[in-house]
Design brief:
Blueprint (H helix, E strand, L loop, with lengths): L3 H9 L7 H12 L3 H11 L8 H8 L8 H10 L2 H12 L6 H17 L4 H13 L2
Protein name: HEAT repeat domain-containing protein
Organism: Vitreoscilla massiliensis
Length: 135
């Protein structure tokens, strides 16, 4: 359940001119493995207002177990720019075991993307690593 008070605290640290208070607060809570910030991070990642802070939010999620984030992280690799994709790839890379259903679903998404879209070389390397690593 989303902690509304924590969300309000996070939002109060938004400053268009200085991203440090927001980033520091998020990262401090995530490094302490605050359970409430986990849900807040996932919520913020879905909000358009936070698109320019997505890499930081994903970086903060690296403090939590990676398996539950695996499918989302692959999606961030597929859709993200360089910083977002690489932060998400770290989550993917740290995932030791995933469910076979999720593995098949992710592989289909990657294969479709590689067949139907123009994908930059650096991202192709990440996607191929994922395909090769989770059989």
């Amino acid at each position: 359940m989303l902690n509304q008070q924590l969300l309000a605290d996070v939002m109060s640290r938004l400053d268009e001119d200085d991203i440090r208070p927001f980033n520091n607060y998020i990262l401090d809570l995530a490094e302490a493995k605050d359970e409430d910030i986990y849900e807040v991070l996932l919520y913020l990642l879905e909000q358009p207002l936070f698109q320019d802070r997505k890499a930081t939010l994903i970086y903060a999620l690296q403090n939590y177990p990676s398996a539950p984030l695996f499918e989302k992280a692959v999606g961030w690799v597929l859709l993200g720019g360089f910083e977002v994709a690489n932060e998400a790839f770290t989550i993917v890379e740290n995932t030791e075991e995933i469910d076979s259903v999720i593995s098949r679903r992710v592989k289909r998404k990657i294969a479709l993307t590689l067949k139907t879209e123009m994908v930059e070389d650096w991202k192709i390397e990440l996607l191929e690593w994922i395909l090769d690593s989770y059989r």
